């Protein structure tokens, strides 16, 4: 009888173990299926935070896309030894920040949270469901605070697709490409941040300034108070900031531009009443040394050049005002972060090259990287009059160490190859339509062919890929010798005004 009892008990235990293992396996498969089917948007998704074990990060950044573009955690590590992660997302409201913050405190219990309040205004209080998906879908499926966020912010009738994201994405199976099965966006190497080298057009219009009635909405005030109370209760230091924006580009409603300073002043008053420091860069961004035409991707968002300035300032401020450990003395941790820093620099280089949007900026970026030991440049000016090119391009030739004859009034073809800044070949001749093959050679793993086809269309073929964009101009192809990958090919118009990329920036 006893043996029978023990046999039954043993059978029940085995059954429970099997069910548990099945559920764990099913959860694992479901999680990864969601990663695959989830729409990939580099600016909105930041799913890698939960890949790190608890108590990894001492500083966390939360907020909307302005802080996602504006703060670079890897730079903070390299300059200050600060272990941080950027948990910002596109259109992240204060309500969303609150629930995400609760979860982040549970996971990491950071010493400092930096919250951007740029989007505290009422106009941005109500978010479309897509932005809530960006946030909740990145959190573990069974996460307690994920459920709290959904229940608090999503109408009951719409919650199913948030509880089970695959329900929303399952129809994407027809759209899947090889990239959906890869590890994801480059944010894995940037600790949650994004970076673009896009700059404002030289003829950018300035948004009109005028007085508007604006008040911090009741929901924003409520959640901001909750955030301050939460950090106080949990013993986590809180720093509020409002990222700078430029009035030099009117891609945002003028009402928003003009309401933002007033609303942030009310945020400042609430912060002061709770003894919480507030860096209001809307009111005064002069300590950052920003230049609209160089440091902004668009009106509200910094580009990588502006982000580096903001991040440098924050690094110094955090060091001066908070007791944040310098983790560089932790050999094991520092080794991991240093390896990440190497990957970050590769991402930064690639993203900068592939997102540059103005000819003068493009040439500055290409000049900065032209002696990189991993990079080769192929330069081709096809069928152009050298004496008529813009000063921008003329200066670019000189900065790259090239010496074409820019005095001739004849139609010319010009090409050059640079390897880590060292000139491998350079030639210039009058355009000859009777000889379609202009040049052919190999440089290690790079195979190059410059030709005109039967219809007179130029082709710049690197390893079988035609890099010639539709826009005529000075073409500069960037090739990574280490990865044997063509990073991009830019075409700079001969008037020096426009830039065309071979492809969109890769992730």
Short structural summary:
38% of the residues lie in helices and 17% in strands. By secondary structure, it is an alpha/beta fold. The strands form three sheets. The protein has a six-stranded antiparallel sheet, with helices on one face. A five-stranded parallel sheet has the order 2-1-3-4-5, sandwiched between helices. The chain has a four-stranded antiparallel sheet with strand order 9-10-11-12, with no helix packed on it.
Task: Walk me through this protein's architecture.
The protein is α/β, with parallel strands linked by helices and 507 residues long. It folds into 2 domains: 38-354, SGNH hydrolase (Rossmann fold, 3-Layer(aba) Sandwich), CATH 3.40.50; 356-501, no CATH class. It has helices at 2-37, 65-70, 73-80, 94-108, 129-136, 144-153, 160-163, 166-169, 218-234, 254-273, 292-295, 304-321, 331-355, 359-369, 391-399; strands at residues 59-62, 84-86, 112-116, 237-242, 278-280, 375-384, 412-419, 422-430, 437-443, 446-452, 458-462, 465-466, 474-480, 485-492, 499-501. The strands form 3 sheets. A 6-stranded antiparallel beta sheet has the order 8-7-6-13-14-15, covered by helices on one side. A 5-stranded parallel beta sheet has the order 2-1-3-4-5, with helices on both faces. The protein is globular, with a radius of gyration of 27 Å. The protein starts with a helix and ends in a 6-residue tail after the last strand.
